[in-house]
Write a structure and sequence with these properties.
alpha/beta, Rossmann fold, two-stranded parallel ribbon, binds S-adenosylmethionine, metal-binding, transit peptide
Length: 390
């Protein structure tokens, strides 16, 4: 029986482009040019058959990856995995962006003013400060950095490997469909985690890719990614050749990669300053496409819009590569996002179906769905993705 979960994927694939010849290529959706969008090119066909709608059927994990994940989970000593998967999933989907220091300061001053206006205000400076701090803690979202140790890495794999792979595959599919002649040779993945991006890149451009660079600050995650590539064991041959692991992002702009990816990774950084610094580095290291993927939540949408603006407004990519970029997908423009201009800003997201790894809880959930029982599905993820191109 074919089993399928649902997952939503962003409406944000952006391409930034400098080389005129490439821009012309990127503007083309097979069968349609941007100039003839007034003409009746659809004829009597329904809109869902618009050639610009780049469907990707339900994504299935490479069997070697799904098997390795199941082996690793079976071999692990982690208890209550299902509960931990649910807790992590809920946490990731309800996560907001960290509050910036300037905003904290603004709120603190506002609270202090309110306390001072109150006749019952604390008598001493020290007491006033304590009251402000207490109120601030009570009313401010407390963003927590996740420490991907061995257990959390495994739980993350169980929770997100299949959905993450599907989301990134969808973004790669768009590039491949619109520019079939693009044959990347090198790929760098920032915050590589389980290595799902490497697997998706290999599935898309395995013929041409000859180097995959995985960067992750967590040694446990890098270890897990390597084991997944080796079929769930420490030794053995890697399913994908030429994968290199690094704990630190190489900053030199001299070495560039054809495709640079950050999937669900920018949201792990503790401040806008950190995200800005990482984005600048990633962009400098991009020779063709920068692909950004985040959850399709308001926070994910906001974060990707900030990233888009940062890249578009950057004066110069790097002294070694001054080419500017442009949005490749999903937006057909580089104007402010209308979704964010609304009085109640909405998250913009896409949907991508995938076949979940047959972990016991996934099978139960699918069984319930098949029987018509309503269960809150963890596959209703709504990642956002952005693709930049230079
Ligand atoms: C949510 S996981 C995403 C993993 C992977 N990209 C995926 O899609 O499955 C985020 C990863 O970013 C890594 N990370 C967080 N901060 C980092 C940093 N400053 N440098 C490199 N990696 C970082 C974490 O260790 C974690 O593995």
């Amino acid at each position: 029986m074919a089993t399928a979960g649902r997952l939503k994927l962003s409406s944000w694939r952006w391409c930034l482009r400098v080389v005129p010849q490439s821009r012309a290529l990127a503007a083309l959706v097979p069968g349609v040019t941007q100039v003839d969008n007034q003409s009746d090119f659809l004829g009597k066909k329904p809109h869902r058959q618009h050639p610009g709608v780049l469907h990707l059927p339900h994504v299935r994990l490479p069997p070697a990856l799904a098997n390795a994940a199941q082996i690793l989970l079976l071999d692990s000593t982690v208890s209550d995995v299902e509960d931990k998967v649910q807790t992590l999933t809920n946490y990731l989907w309800s996560r907001h962006l960290p509050v910036e220091p300037e905003e904290l300061q603004r709120r603190a001053m506002h609270l202090e003013k309110k306390f001072l206006e109150n006749p019952d205000t604390p008598q001493t400076e020290k007491k006033l400060q304590a009251a402000v701090l207490h109120a601030l803690r009570r009313t401010t979202y407390h963003w927590q950095e996740l420490s991907y140790n061995e257990e959390l890495s495994l739980v993350y794999m169980a929770a997100r490997l299949d959905g993450g792979f599907a989301a990134v595959s969808r973004a790669f599919h768009e590039i491949q469909t619109r520019i079939p002649q693009f044959q990347p040779q090198t790929m760098m993945d920032f915050g590589s985690g389980t290595g799902s991006v490497t697997w998706a890149a290999h599935a898309t451009w395995g013929q041409s890719l000859r180097e995959y660079m995985c960067v992750d600050s967590s040694a446990a995650m890098l270890n897990l990614a390597e084991k997944l590539l080796k079929g769930g064991s420490e030794s053995g041959k890697s399913y994908v050749p030429a994968v290199f692991f690094r704990q630190f992002l190489p900053v030199s702009p001299k070495v560039q990669f054809d495709v640079v990816v950050a999937a669900f990774a920018l949201s792990e950084l503790p401040s806008m300053a950190d995200r800005t610094a990482v984005l600048h580095t990633l962009w400098r290291k991009t020779s063709h496409f920068l692909v950004l993927v985040e959850n399709g939540t308001k926070a994910g949408h906001r974060l990707l819009m900030d990233a888009r603006d940062l890249v578009l407004k950057g004066k110069e990519k790097s002294p070694l590569d001054p080419r500017p970029g442009f949005v490749f997908a999903p937006c057909p423009h580089e104007l402010p996002c209308p979704q964010l201009m609304a009085s109640q800003p909405l998250a913009c997201s896409f949907s991508q179906g995938y076949h979940p790894i047959p972990f016991s809880w996934n099978m139960r959930r699918l069984q319930s769905q098949a029987e018509g029982t309503h269960l809150k599905s963890q596959h209703s993820a709504e990642p956002e993705a952005g693709v930049f191109q230079v």
